[in-house]
Amino acid sequence: MSTSPLALAVILACQLMVVLDGTVTYAALPKLRADLGLARADLSWVQNAYMLTFGGFMLLGARTGDILGHRRVFLAASAAFVLASSAGGLTQSIQGLLVARGLQGIAAAFAAPSALALLMLLFPEGVARVRAISLYTAVSGGGSAAGLVLGGILTDVGSWRWVLFINVPIGALLLMLGPRCLPEAPRNGGHFDVMGALTITLGTSLLVYGLVRCVPDGAEHPGVVAPLIAAGLLLTAFVHIEKRARQPITPLSLFVNAQRLGAYAGRMLLIGGMLGTFFFLIQYVQEVLKFSAFRAGLAFLPLSVTQFLMVMVGVPRLMPRLGGKGLLTGGLLIAASGMVCLSRVSADTEFFADLALPIVMLGIGTGAALVPLTTAGIAGVAPRDAGAASGLINATHYIGGAMGTAVVVFVVDLTLGRAALARGSTGSTLELKAKTELTHALSVSAATSAAFFVLALLIVLVTMRRPRSLPAE
């Protein structure tokens, strides 16, 4: 085997590993909740600890690769990812698990940008690079959906800990093959914007924490008010730091262009809505429909397959005909329609009759929307800011996923409290009550996500009005 195919395989394996970990724990949530004794709202932090640190440190990770060399950073971050995964699988407490998930996210934030930079170095511009980037996009787009399937299989065959231990052999293989086949990347001088990375990560984390705790603790509780105020101060400080930094991780000029700003906001709403609903959907099919974790994972196979096919086959054929804006509009409409169908769920819902079609619609819609959102997010960016713009796309993806999940959990908790008061609590068993509440949670989360998608569509229509603002090639 020549060096390039093996190096490409190593890069794609790393990207798949870090993307999978954003969703691979979803199917394990019911067993993890029972094992560690968690409240349902607090369970969202198993995801958010990873998503927030991944997104928050992404730009610093990209800058570190530029300064220290992407090959060196790739290998060091992969080793850290393996160690954090091992610690998470061995932990006996929720605190230990959340720390491990946060460390996984930080390691992923340094590994992922270097993986993409090495791919660009490995394949010069031309047909080979286009093919490599297509594979990279397919892995990135389909990896989240595939994580839902794999998580169910691993949880059912072994335990929830296996969804973390699976990273150990993958990472070990990367560390064995990487030094042999990955090219040396040139180093560039520069400065680390550590304060920028810390303020954006801590600010978004405290914002998410305040939203998650708002309903159970009360909006006026000091444990809610203080984090929200601190989040506002930290995010304000982040803007001031980026204005004055010699080499900011997020050049504020990227937000001046309305098209790019719309693409970032649209991506946050799309990913936030998807992951927020998946958080409840994976629990619904296990606790209400009584699917095993294995069957629950397989339930998302239509999503994974349709999303992959849309990215690899549908988008290349439809983009020249519809243009980026047309494809994005159609994708968001299909995804929103799928969420509306999903919001009609009840305790009598059957998977194949009532859930399969909405899941397929979500795969088609999100697959169609992600590529033009990516294209719009880097359109018109100066070459010196290309790396920052690419990193910002990934940052909005993961931070949007965490914040969207927090908002959806907030809305669900708020409506669950009102629904419980309307129903009363007499004459219901604990099991029936749990099923009723989870069914209500899925219905509300899907309706909330549909509203997210409609808002994303409105933003797209307003910010991408010019016909040539989204290139079709």
UniProtKB/TrEMBL annotation:
Keywords: Cell membrane, Membrane, Transmembrane, Transmembrane helix, Transport
Keyword set includes Transmembrane helix: yes
Main location: membrane
GO cellular component: plasma membrane
Transmembrane segments: 43-61, 73-91, 103-123, 135-154, 160-178, 190-212, 224-241, 261-282, 294-315, 327-347, 359-383, 395-421, 441-462
Record-annotated Major facilitator superfamily (MFS) profile domain positions: 7-468
PANTHER family: BLR6921 PROTEIN, MAJOR FACILITATOR SUPERFAMILY MULTIDRUG TRANSPORTER MFSC
Name of the molecule in the record: MFS transporter
Source species taxonomy: Bacteria, Pseudomonadati, Pseudomonadota, Betaproteobacteria, Burkholderiales
